[in-house]
UniProtKB/TrEMBL annotation:
Signal peptide: none annotated. Keywords: Acyltransferase, ATP-binding, Cytoplasm, Nucleotide-binding, RNA-binding, Transferase, tRNA processing, tRNA-binding. GO terms for molecular function: 18S rRNA cytidine N-acetyltransferase activity; ATP binding; tRNA binding; tRNA cytidine N4-acetyltransferase activity. It is an enzyme of class 2 (transferase). The gene is tmcA. This is tRNA(Met) cytidine acetyltransferase TmcA. Belongs to the TmcA family. NCBIfam families: RNAactase_tcmA_Halo.
Length: 754
């Protein structure tokens, strides 16, 4: 077998079609590394165009550990060698597949393919959530991976143990190279050089749509799979706008995500002779004539510093919806988002933000980019990655499910074996999860198929998935594990017990058995029709029932980035708030709420302890780490707690409260007394205060914000009006919670008689 010749043939086929090829070297690891060097010799690639991704050291090529594969995103190499023998995961596979340039090779060093499904690695160990062991982890994803390697076009397989080529990587009737040169549209206003820099007709069409951003009141949303040139289009638009004297503010999750935007903008400004200067440290590019392009992080961009003319948001799907909503107030805005990213797919942007964008004053233009930039259409490595990792999975098409209703659906427990054997079912389930969540990664597919602590439940309508939930078994840990968790050791896959134990100091919290609703998603065509509630109801009934010799399930739980709508949804479905984080969730940008739905006496005791502690803590944390929490989120979180804080005021405190409510007294004399009453009112299902008054209680009494800030945020005409409103609210509090207190009645009579 001549590996160098095989590599040369694959490289020739890849270059001739501007596609990529995948070469699998299956067998012993050392033999695979030696074979990879033969492949690189045959591929005739300069060393600086090769990335060797391995946990091993000692290579003359660029070497990246698999767990750091993300650092290669946004870069290209002619050849990427991936050592799948150690630190390998589906995420690594997906990220690296996107790094290989057109005409290049993706080389995968793998165990013998017949053995790989049963070969556990570090990723499989991560799926062994206590109390289960790695022997309980399935091999379904690896079986799927091997099957696609053996059947997909453009994949060559070499068996190193037998020294044979099992597949030569051929592609039937590959398309020729597309040398079409895009041209600018008639009447374009961006520079001709910007359109000359476009590499595809898609890019040119997108740039033409982005010309709308020259006018106020416009929004352009660009969606594309990775590798379509959306960031380059954003950069060309930014450069064109700056050359025209506009102030362009660019934001992204990190500056590294926006680096391509700035690179293309600078190139265009130089090409048009309008480049002024570049402060690389400050991330500011100045153009002649006063225009500029500057970068800030999303929280800063939400405040629109120095009133930019245009806001451009790259990788918008990775920016919290809370911040995206603030961007909709910009004079004009462009949103650029990846639909199916190699590092993870997520449609939270589309599902949650698009509704808010539609409600804004901006006129929205949508652009979809389909044509790859770095390689030709129908590239076999891309289609293999999409097929293997389900990056393009979608739920059932809307017409098939639009008449679904709770009473028309069937509740199903979908086993991992059933999902692995039914590609159509798996795609509908995973497609719903991708659609509903910010960031669903390739690793999540493997977890769905192989993690022994996960269960999948669904509602089916005419054979199609319309609502799905992923449940993670947690707790049931022995005393030694609970003790180590209490002392700071992280225990995988037990999110709720870990928070209760390590943060809230409850060493017994990991003893009860619970199921956490990791994800729940309902088809977008039938949202708000009761399907999610029906699914949760069925899960509750199933887990509450005893049988099959299984241990009792003590509680159902959930943790998520809290919004008023979500808190209300879970509250309506029997879940009660037991914890509220003091830092924002990195994914959603919201503070996280943990909620429990107890099923047994043990679950009830766990719930009651933490519900009480939650209410005890809230007045303190609201005045410090949660001083910026949305008042409607605070209201909903406290009201969803199935416990009641006591109203225990001394007679002196009651006299101060009554004096401030009915007489000349002052709220600042005894703010703790007002906090106690405000806290109780927010927890009361029959609140004595209006929603407007409750927001005032949160922002001023509980969070302690300055009067001027409170009046401005809550739209009072003046601080005096806000103060009067608090007095009115205090009257309602006294009448509800002090009606049977003698000191209250005596004090009220004194003022009512004057």
């Amino acid at each position: 077998m001549n590996l160098a010749a095989l590599a040369a043939d694959l490289r020739t086929a890849a270059r001739d079609t501007n596609q990529r090829r995948l070469l699998v070297l299956a067998g012993d690891r050392d033999a695979g590394i030696d074979a990879a060097f033969d492949v690189l010799d045959g591929a005739d690639v300069p060393d600086d165009e090769v990335a060797f991704v391995t946990a091993r050291e000692g290579f003359r090529f660029e070497r990246v550990r698999p767990k750091h594969a993300r650092t290669l995103l946004g870069t290209t190499r002619t050849v990427v060698v991936c050592d799948a023998h150690e630190e390998f995961s589906p995420n690594v596979l997906g990220r690296l597949a996107g790094v290989v340039d057109g005409g290049g090779l993706f080389v995968l060093l793998a165990p013998p393919l017949d053995e790989w499904p049963e070969t556990d690695g570090s990723f499989e160990e991560s799926l062994a959530v206590p109390p289960v062991s790695v022997s309980d982890v399935g091999g379904r994803f690896r079986t799927r991976l091997v099957e696609t390697l053996r059947t997909h076009p453009g994949v060559a397989v070499v068996n190193l143990d037998t020294d044979t080529v099992e597949r030569n990587g051929s592609v039937d009737a590959p398309p020729g190279r597309d040398d079409h040169t895009p041209s600018p549209p008639h009447g374009h206003t961006y520079p001709r050089a910007a359109y000359d820099a476009c590499l595809t007709a898609d890019q040119s069409r997108t740039l033409a749509a982005l010309e709308r951003l020259r006018n106020a009141g416009e929004a352009v949303v660009v969606e594309a799979d990775r590798g379509r040139g959306k960031s380059s289009a954003a950069g060309l638009a930014a450069g064109s706008l700056a050359a025209d004297g506009r102030d362009v503010l660019v934001t992204a999750p990190a500056y590294g995500n926006a680096r391509e935007v700035f690179a293309r903008a600078i190139e265009l400004l130089r090409e048009t002779g309008t480049f002024g200067s570049h402060d690389e440290e400050a991330h500011v590019v100045s153009a002649r004539g006063g225009g500029r392009i500057r970068f800030t992080d999303p929280p800063t961009a939400a405040t629109r510093p120095d009133d930019p003319d245009v806001l451009l948001v790259d990788e918008a799907a990775a920016v919290p919806v809370r911040l995206l909503a603030a961007f909709a107030d910009a004079p004009s805005a462009g949103f650029f988002t990846t639909v199916h990213g190699y590092e993870g797919a997520g449609r939270g942007f589309s599902v949650r933000f698009r509704d808010r964008l539609a409600e804004s004053d901006l006129s929205v233009t949508d652009v979809q980019m389909d044509e790859p930039i770095r390689y030709a259409r129908s590239d076999p490595v891309e289609t293999w990655a999409f097929r293997t990792l389900l990056l393009d999975a979608r739920p059932a098409v809307s017409p098939l499910v639009t008449d679904a209703a709770p009473e028309s659906t069937e509740y199903r427990a979908l086993s991992a074996d059933e999902l692995a054997s039914d590609e159509h079912l798996l795609r509908e389930v995973f497609g719903l999860l991708v659609l509903a969540h910010y960031r669903t990664e390739p690793d999540d597919l493997a977890r769905l198929l192989d993690a022994p602590n996960l269960e999948c439940r669904a509602l089916m309508h005419d054979g199609h998935v319309v609502s799905v939930a992923l449940l993670a078994r947690e707790g049931g840990l022995d005393a030694e594990t609970r003790r180590s968790m209490y002392e700071g050791e992280r225990v995988r896959g037990n999110m709720l017990p870990d928070v209760f134990t390590s943060q809230l100091r409850d060493e017994d919290a990991a003893a009860p058995i619970g199921y956490r609703v990791m994800r729940i998603a309902t088809h977008h065509a039938v949202r708000s029709s009761g399907l999610g509630s029906r699914l949760l109801s069925e899960i509750h009934a199933e887990k509450e029932a005893k049988g099959d010799g299984n241990a009792d399930v003590d509680y159902l739980g959930v943790g998520y980035g809290a919004t008023p709508e979500l808190l209300s949804f879970w509250d309506d479905n029997g879940y009660s708030t037991v914890h509220f984080s003091t830092t924002r969730n990195e994914t959603s940008g919201e503070y996280s709420a943990l909620m429990l739905n107890p099923l047994t006496e043990a679950g009830q005791r766990l719930h009651d302890r933490h519900a009480g502690w939650f209410l005890d803590r809230m007045p303190g944390v609201l005045s410090d780490p949660l001083s910026d929490a949305d008042p409607d989120v605070v209201r909903a979180a406290i009201r969803a707690c199935d416990a009641s804080p006591p109203v225990e005021l001394t007679d002196r405190e009651w006299r101060v409260v009554v004096g401030a409510s009915f007489g000349p007294g002052m709220y600042t004399t005894a703010p703790d007394a007002f906090r106690t009453l405000a806290h109780r009112a927010l927890n009361d299902n029959d609140s004595p205060c209006s929603p407007e008054a409750e927001r005032l209680l949160v922002r001023k009494v509980l969070q302690g914000n300055p009067w001027a800030t409170v009046a401005d945020e809550l739209d009072y005409h003046s601080t005096r009006n806000a103060m009067k409103a608090l007095g009115d609210a205090s009257v309602s509090l006294v009448e509800r919670y002090g009606s049977d207190v003698a000191a209250v009645e005596t004090e009220r009579q004194r003022f009512e008689q004057t």
